[in-house]
Amino acid sequence: EAGVAQSPRYKIIEKRQSVAFWCNPISGHATLYWYQQILGQGPKLLIQFQNNGVVDDSQLPKDRFSAERLKGVDSTLKIQPAKLEDSAVYLCASSHPNYGYTFGSGTRLTVV
Amino acid sequence: KNQVEQSPQSLIILEGKNCTLQCNYTVSPFSNLRWYKQDTGRGPVSLTIMTFSENTKSNGRYTATLDADTKQSSLHITASQLSDSASYICVVSANHNTNAGKSTFGDGTTLTVKP
């Protein structure tokens, strides 16, 4: 089975610029997650979707971060404007009740 | 507050040696505990998943144990290989009223295997 696809793999932007990440989950996985992983730490949940509805976005900094999953399949995560502390790996994962999480390879964002 | 604490933070061992990583949690009510391996620059990959009734599970040279009474888990790696160098993350899920549950991630143990 194909895994979770993410793009781009790397992105370098200046502070105050905007950036968007894309995720294509495993086919049939209704639940999709975006995580932020700062170097040396475990992933922190930003937002969880169930199909195209938001289940949990309590830790999403909504003043600058937004995410959508319009058709219940692909998802995009946007940061506008970026800050230096947003430098991290952004992981997308999808899950099925019987199979647990599958993570993508992530997008490494560097804000300079 | 649900927490997952992993130890040690980092570990260096020689190739061929065994090692054990620890995970203590306060997540309640408990649903399942998973160990992931995360290679540098990659996403985490699942190694094992254990529910309340399971106290040990193996995946090749990886063996996870779970003591639900003391809320502790360990991951034992046997006959380590250079390719075992990675971060090992413990994830504990609460029994939550959603399809996927509420998961708490540890900060991981960084293992380095040297020749």
Discrete helix count of chain A: 0
Radius of gyration of chain A: 13 Å
**Average pLDDT metric of chain A:** 92
List the helices and strands of chain B in order. Answer: EEEEEEEEEEE
Largest sheet of chain A: 7 strands, mixed
Which segments of chain A are poorly predicted (pLDDT under 50) over 5 or more consecutive residues? none
Helix-and-strand structural type of chain B: mainly beta
Q: Label the overall shape of chain A.
A: globular
What percent of the residues of chain B sit in helical stretches (DSSP H or I)? Answer: under 10%
Number of strands of chain A: 11
Question: What's the helix count of chain B?
Answer: 0
Please give the alpha-carbon distance between the first and last residues of chain B: 41 Å
> Whole-Å distance between the termini of chain A?
37 Å
Oligomeric form: heterodimer
- Biggest pleated sheet of chain B: 6 strands, mixed
Question: Strand tally of chain B, please?
Answer: 11
Biggest interface and residues each: A-B, 25 and 21 residues
Give a structural overview.
The complex is a heterodimer of chains A (112) and B (115). By secondary structure, chain A is mainly β. Helix content of chain A is 0%, strand content 52%. Chain A is built from no helices and 11 strands. In chain A, strands 2, 4, 5, 6, 9, 10 and 11 form a 7-stranded mixed beta sheet that branches. In chain A, 38% of the residues are buried. With 115 residues, chain B is an all-beta fold. Chain B contains no helices and 11 strands. In chain B, the strands form 2 sheets. In chain B, strands 2, 4, 5, 9, 10 and 11 form a 6-stranded mixed beta sheet that branches. A 5-stranded antiparallel beta sheet of chain B has the order 1-3-8-7-6, with no helix packed on it. In chain B, strand 4 and strand 5 form a beta hairpin. The radius of gyration of chain B is 14 Å and the shape is globular. Chain B starts with a strand and ends with a strand. The chains are: A mainly beta (112), B mainly beta (115). The A-B interface holds A 4, 30-31, 40-45, 48, 50, 55-56, 91, 93, 95, 97, 100-106, 108 and B 4, 34, 36, 41-46, 49, 89, 91, 98-100, 102-103, 105-108.
